[in-house]
Amino acid sequence: MGPHPYGWWIVLHLVLFVFWLGGDLGVFYSSRFVLRPSLTPQARATALAIMSGLDLGPKICLVLFLPSGVTLMAMAPHGATFAGIALFPWWSVALTWLLAAGWLALTITDHRTRGRFPWVRRGDWAIRIGLIAVMASAAAYTLAAEAPFGVSTNPRWLGAKVLLYTLAVAAGLGIRLTLRPFGPAFGELTAAGSTPEREGALRRSIDGCLPYVWVIWGSVLGAAVLGVLKPGAAL
């Protein structure tokens, strides 16, 4: 008999963790070269292209982390119920994957077109903000309730994991807002050369993202630990 499908979904979930964090580390490392005034504008543009290419991986992992997690919750033998009815029947899992596919299409399109289609970016933002609101509420309820959603195995670890995922999504939006001045400043640098003002604008944009980057790294690592160890769970 082969391995249970549940195990393969766990493997996928862990692989998403690995590529999410690894890709983010690559983006951070590449950004250090973008900020080096000693490099030529062409070399810095190459570093920026590498940084942008690497950044797509974590974005994809962030999106797929949601439906893979919902699939794991649906397959769990002690899954959530309401009035005796499973909260994650298979049709809801399929719907989650369908929605994630739409979100993924928006995310990749926005990344590749660099915001040339405002409706794509607005759609991506709307999904992320909606998820933040829904998941923050679900996480708070799971952490506070005695038997959240009918689950009596003390799933507070799962509530904390959902909360960490919510923080990572919110931090990603913070990065986008902080990077808004970067594009115009880098365009001026490549067109007219380096000046202290342009270098300062670039550094403020990229280094201003560091607190959000640390939140994402901490959230991804923390969620991985919670998912593997499940502290306090009565399984």
Describe this structure in words.
α3 crosses α4 (118-144). The protein has a two-stranded antiparallel sheet with strand order 1-2. It is elongated. It has one domain (5-229). A hairpin with a 2-residue loop joins β1 and β2. It has helices at residues 5-34, 41-75, 90-113, 118-144, 156-178, 182-192, 196-207, 210-229, and strands at 81-82, 85-86. It has 235 residues and is mainly alpha-helical. The two termini are 24 Å apart.
Total strand count, please? 2
Q: Runs with pLDDT <50, length 5+?
A: none
Helix content: over 70%
- Put simply, the count of helices is 8
Structural Rg: 20 Å
Would you list the SSEs in sequence order as H and E? HHEEHHHHHH
Strand content: under 5%
Count of individual domains: 1
Instruction: Provide the structure class.
Output: mainly alpha
User: How much is the average pLDDT?
Assistant: 91
- In one word, what is the shape? elongated
CA(first)-CA(last) distance: 24 Å
Short structural summary:
The chain crosses the membrane at residues 6-35, 56-76, 82-104, 125-145, 157-179, 209-229. Keywords: Membrane, Transmembrane, Transmembrane helix. Helices cover 77% and strands 2% of the residues.
